[in-house]
Design goal:
The protein is built from 19 helices and 20 strands. With about 500 residues, the protein is an alpha+beta fold. It has 4 domains: about 100 residues, 3-Layer(aba) Sandwich (Rossmann fold); about 70 residues, ATP-grasp fold, A domain (Dna Ligase, domain 1, 2-Layer Sandwich), CATH 3.30.1490; about 240 residues, ATP-grasp fold, B domain (D-amino Acid Aminotransferase, Chain A, domain 1), CATH 3.30.470; about 40 residues, no CATH class. An 8-stranded antiparallel β-sheet has the order 13-12-9-10-11-14-19-18. The longest helix is centred in the C-terminal third of the chain and has 17 residues. It starts with a strand and ends with a helix. About 45% of the residues are buried.
């Protein structure tokens, strides 16, 4: 394998290219017209424009990507995450074109891409499942009877769903039919598939996922867990490895289940098995993501493995060169997704120009990004700017290092999730490990960031004291002095 095309953009494209370069492999970038000056385009050995900015005219058009492979002589395609990374039809196109997809087979993607077929595939391994239906709901009266048996509240979920779409919480029998109709409608709109099923609603869930790797020789291992419970809109914002709540026994049990889930579809490559953990610390299988995850760096840091290199080796037909018992957890890692979003405005995207962009440095700090100062955040794609990852000998060191890194990360011109990340790191629920997927709803509101910012609090206190002692003119004079100080310039950016 001498040349790989990366069918993606931004930070993940760069991250894949760097590992490929270390392996002596040439890389090809594809880009839309909006990404002509993007960093991944400049970094690659070759680059091919594949269409206009909208992803459905560029990054989601498999035929254009395969044509770019033929044009450049690339032998394999790495899809990254998002876009076509879990698209079974694209995987088949790649295979039919005589190319290698650095990922699982289209058959595995197809089974695991639907929650109901995934459940059916793993049943023979006695994987714990959330009580509910094992097939799509077709009969309303039968579904109501099953809902009574499971007990309210229940969750109606789209079989082809993800990201919280096609999902409805039902608290009583009276609202069941209406909520089901809404879930079906949303599922059809989002996925073109109206199949839904029901599960018991876990009121205080934790989201735990297990990283797995499988080679073409039948070897499958797990690389321990990631805690992904801090979410907004059912999407992750902060992840860490290992989880602060799992015992060694639970970790072994969940890891063995994850390996069995992968074995159920003869899984090849890197994948993630997702579980929900309830208030009694019982775990249940949710789904499998048949790709590299956004949060893979935290696993890399605690295991010492480069997951992209492992993917490439597996795609070349190499055997895993380690056994499960040889894998160990070393230290603790935390990742914050740095989004161009306004946490004070329901995390809505805040697109604009990166007027200032300076990343943190130092021991135990890693930044995976795809931008530089002066660049604009395109409106066409996911608003993630970067992934900020910190590593420490223990969880507390990783948390404190994350706080330091957030303070050193300098971004102006747009709103970001940096201050939100600091709020989480400093919150007692997170520090103690006593939190679930409702963290944002329980603890975060529009007043949280300012109240949590010691710089803001100090300035407010100074202004208040001076206002009492000297009157308004004194306040203005004192404020002017603060603005002129290096501390003020470098830390507050007013």
């Amino acid at each position: 394998m001498k040349k790989i095309l990366i069918a993606n953009r931004g930070e993940i494209a760069l991250r894949i290219m760097r590992s490929a370069r270390e392996m002596g492999i040439k890389t090809v970038a594809v880009f839309s017209e909006a990404d002509r000056d993007a960093l991944h385009v400049r970094y690659a050995d070759e680059a091919v424009c594949i269409g206009p900015p909208p992803s459905n005219q560029s990054y989601l058009v498999g035929e254009k990507i395969i044509e770019a492979c033929k044009k450049t002589g690339a032998e394999a395609i790495h899809p990254g995450y998002g876009f076509l990374s879990e698209n079974a039809a694209f995987a088949r196109l790649v295979r039919e074109a005589g190319l290698i997809l650095i990922g699982p087979t289209p058959e595995a993607m197809e089974i695991m891409g639907n929650k109901l077929s995934a459940k059916a595939a793993v049943l023979k391994y006695n994987i714990p499942m959330v009580p509910g239906t094992e097939e799509a709901i077709n009969d309303i009266s039968e579904a109501k009877n099953r809902a009574r048996e499971v007990g309210f509240p229940i969750l109606i979920k789209a079989a082809a769903g993800g990201g919280g779409k096609g999902m409805r919480i039902v608290n009583s029998l009276e609202e069941f039919e209406e909520q089901m109709q809404l879930a079906v409608s949303e599922a059809i709109s989002a996925f073109g598939d109206g199949a839904v099923f029901i599960e018991r609603f876990v009121t205080s869930p934790r989201h735990i996922e297990i990283q797995v790797l499988g080679d073409t020789h039948g070897n499958i291992v797990h690389l321990f867990e990631r805690e992904c419970s801090v979410q907004r809109r059912h999407q992750k914002v902060i992840e860490e490895a290992p989880s602060s709540i799992l015992t060694p026994e639970m970790r072994a049990q969940m890891g063995a289940c994850a390996v069995d889930v992968a074995r159920a579809v003869n899984y090849v490559g890197a994948g993630t098995v997702e579980f929900i953990l309830d208030e009694n610390l019982d775990f249940f299988f949710l789904e499998m993501n048949t790709r590299l995850q956004v949060e893979h760096p935290v696993t890399e840091l605690i295991t010492g493995l480069d997951l992209v290199k492992e993917q490439i080796k597996i795609a070349r037909g190499e055997k895993l060169n380690y056994r499960q018992e040889e894998l160990k957890i070393n230290g603790h890692a935390i990742e914050l997704r740095v989004y161009a979003e306004d946490p004070l405005n329901n995390f809505l995207p805040d697109i604009g120009t990166l007027e200032t962009y300076k990343t943190p440095k130092g021991n135990g700090v890693r930044v995976d990004d795809g931008f530089e100062q002066g660049m604009e955040i395109p409106i066409y794609y996911d608003p993630m700017i970067a992934k900020l990852i910190t590593y420490g000998a223990c969880r507390d060191e990783a948390i404190q290092r994350m706080i330091r890194a957030i303070d050193e990360y300098d971004i102006t011109g747009i709103k970001t999730t940096l201050k939100f990340g600091k709020f989480v790191m400093q919150h007692e629920a997170f520090k103690s490990g006593n939190f679930d997927t409702h963290f944002v709803d329980k603890y975060f509101n529009a007043n949280s960031l300012n109240a949590n910012d010691p710089d803001e609090a100090l300035i407010a206190a100074i202004a208040a004291v001076l206002a009492i002692k000297k009157g308004q003119s004194g306040v203005e004079q004192a404020s002017s002095k603060i603005i002129e100080s290096n501390w003020r310039k470098n830390r507050l950016k007013f």
